[in-house]
């Protein structure tokens, strides 16, 4: 008998100065993908690309015991307004160094050297896993299908991030 997957409560934050819920394809894609995988959408919001507004929402979710994972999309590039890494990195207790590296390796196959401009990152804060993804729906698909789908599945071996955010597993940071 195989072990049952433990669904996680995942919040999705879109960082954009121009998108709303009707035009937010990346946030919608993440919400759809996580539901298809058996997880629960804890909340979904859109915030402008402002360090303090991003930080306020992410901080709120980090403090909320009902949110186990936070996915942000947008604001990870190099343009003047891109500030998601600066907003989130100071909140992390531990960085997942390999997340950005692995994402860029997967993305290389799709967009070549342009992937070098991605400043996506992952980390843990207060037993909450946080992943900051680029704003394109293609990049969100790459990150979900290539990394997050397995790493947020409590059955994935030899290790996964799901078991770090499930309190009854006793392994969280």
Helix content: 25-40%
> Could you say which overall geometry the principal axes of the C-alpha atoms support?
globular
Low-confidence stretches: none
Secondary-structure element order, N to C: EHEHEHEHEEHH
Total of domains:
1
Q: Specify the number of helices.
A: 6
Specify the CATH homologous superfamily: MoaB/Mog-like domain
Mean pLDDT: 91
Major beta-sheet overview: 6 strands, mixed
The CATH topology comes to Molybdenum Cofactor Biosythetic Enzyme, Chain A
Strand content: 15-25%
Question: Structural class per helix/strand content?
Answer: alpha/beta
Keywords: Molybdenum cofactor biosynthesis
Pathway: Cofactor biosynthesis; molybdopterin biosynthesis
Family: Belongs to the MoaB/Mog family.
Function: May be involved in the biosynthesis of molybdopterin.
Please explain how this structure is put together.
This is Molybdenum cofactor biosynthesis protein B. Pfam families: MoCF_biosynth. One of its GO terms (cellular component) is cytosol. May be involved in the biosynthesis of molybdopterin. The protein has a single domain (9-167), classed as 3-Layer(aba) Sandwich (Molybdenum Cofactor Biosythetic Enzyme, Chain A), CATH 3.40.980. It is globular, with a radius of gyration of 15 Å. Strand 5 and strand 6 form a beta hairpin. With 173 residues, it is an alpha/beta fold. The protein has helices at 25-36, 51-63, 84-89, 97-111, 137-151, 162-165; strands at residues 9-15, 40-47, 69-73, 94-95, 121-125, 128-133. The longest helix has 15 residues, at 97-111. The chain starts with 8 loop residues before the first strand and ends in an 8-residue tail after the last helix. A six-stranded mixed sheet has the order 2-1-3-6-5-4, sandwiched between helices. The mean pLDDT is 91.
């Amino acid at each position: 008998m195989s072990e049952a997957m433990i669904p996680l409560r995942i919040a999705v934050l879109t960082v954009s100065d121009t998108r709303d819920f009707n035009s937010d394809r990346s946030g919608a894609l993440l919400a759809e993908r996580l539901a298809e995988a058996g997880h629960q959408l804890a909340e979904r919001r859109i915030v402008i690309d402002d360090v303090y507004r991003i930080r306020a929402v992410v901080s709120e979710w980090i403090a909320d015991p009902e949110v186990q994972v936070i996915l942000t999309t947008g604001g990870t590039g190099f343009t003047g307004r891109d500030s998601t890494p600066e907003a989130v990195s100071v909140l992390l207790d531990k960085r997942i160094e390999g997340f950005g590296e692995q994402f860029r390796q997967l993305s290389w196959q799709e967009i070549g050297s342009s992937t070098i401009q991605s400043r996506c990152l992952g980390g843990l804060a207060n037993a909450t896993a946080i992943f900051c993804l680029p704003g394109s729906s293609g990049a969100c698909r790459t990150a979900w299908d290539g990394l997050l789908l397995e790493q947020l599945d409590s059955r994935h071996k030899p290790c996964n991030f799901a078991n770090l955010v499930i309190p009854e597993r006793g392994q969280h940071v």
